[in-house]
Structure formats: structure tokens, C-alpha cells
């Protein structure tokens, strides 16, 4: 199982566009056979920061996700173009 978070910071004026892209990306990603969990969050104390919690069955499923048309359209085409900062945290389950 592959688990990680992606934290991204955006400008306030881009918030509506970012949230729409996240909704579309989450809906499509959850339909992928290798996607276990895909949950975007807005940070309560900083609504211009989003955190996406993702889990994939394996590395092949994660790579397949990145090759999808919806990833290219919403992540690469919108999120990556608007983000000010990005950090990825790879996770290891302890229980």
C-alpha cells in the first residue's frame, strides 16, 4: 500500500477554481481500480492551503493515476499552474 499527503498553497483569489479542480480530480481518481483513498482537504486555519490524502494499492496504481487524463487536466493543468508551494509526505502505517 502506498500512502502519502500532498500539501499545496494557493492565492486566495484562486480558491474557487482550486476547489472545483479538486472536486473533479477526487471524483475521477476514486473511480480508478488501484485507488484506495483520495481525499482533498482545506486546512481550517489556512483556507488557501489544501492537503490531499492519497492511498494506492501499489506503485503501479500510483503511476497509473499520474498517467490519467483527469490527473493531467486537473492536477497538472490547474493545480500545478496555480500552486505557490508544494510538499509531499510519504507515510508508513504503524498499525
- Strand content is 35-45%
CATH domain fold name: Alpha-Beta Plaits
What's the count of strands? 4
What string gives the helices and strands in order?
Answer: EHEEHHE
| CATH architectural label | 2-Layer Sandwich
Strand arrangement, major sheet? 2-3-1-4
Kindly state the mean pLDDT as a whole number?
98
Helix content estimate: 25-40%
Biggest beta-sheet profile: 4 strands, antiparallel
Query: Which CATH C-level class is it?
Result: Alpha Beta
Radius of gyration, in angstroms, nearest whole number: 13 Å
Terminus-to-terminus distance: 13 Å
Q: What structural class do helix, strand and pairing data support? A: alpha+beta
Number of domains: 1
pLDDT < 50 runs, ≥5 residues = none
User: What is the approximate shape?
Assistant: globular
Structure annotation, total helices: 3
Please provide a written account of the structure:
The protein is an alpha+beta fold and 95 residues long. Helices cover 39% and strands 37% of the residues. A hairpin with a 2-residue loop joins β2 (35-43) and β3 (46-56). α1 (15-29) packs antiparallel against α3. The longest helix has 15 residues, at 15-29. It is globular and about 35 Å long.
Short description:
With 95 residues, this protein is α+β, with helices and mostly antiparallel strands. The two termini are 13 Å apart. 39% of the residues lie in helices and 37% in strands.
Amino acid at each position: 500500500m502506498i500512502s502519502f499527503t500532498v500539501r499545496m498553497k494557493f492565492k486566495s483569489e484562486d480558491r474557487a477554481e482550486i476547489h472545483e479542480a479538486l472536486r473533479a480530480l477526487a471524483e475521477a481518481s476514486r473511480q480508478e481500480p488501484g485507488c484506495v483513498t483520495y481525499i482533498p482537504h482545506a486546512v481550517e486555519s489556512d483556507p488557501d492551503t489544501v492537503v490531499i490524502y492519497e492511498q494506492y494499492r501499489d506503485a503501479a496504481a500510483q503511476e497509473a493515476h499520474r498517467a490519467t487524463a483527469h490527473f493531467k487536466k486537473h492536477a497538472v493543468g490547474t493545480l500545478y499552474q496555480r500552486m505557490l508551494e508544494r510538499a509531499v509526505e510519504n507515510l508508513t502505517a504503524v498499525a
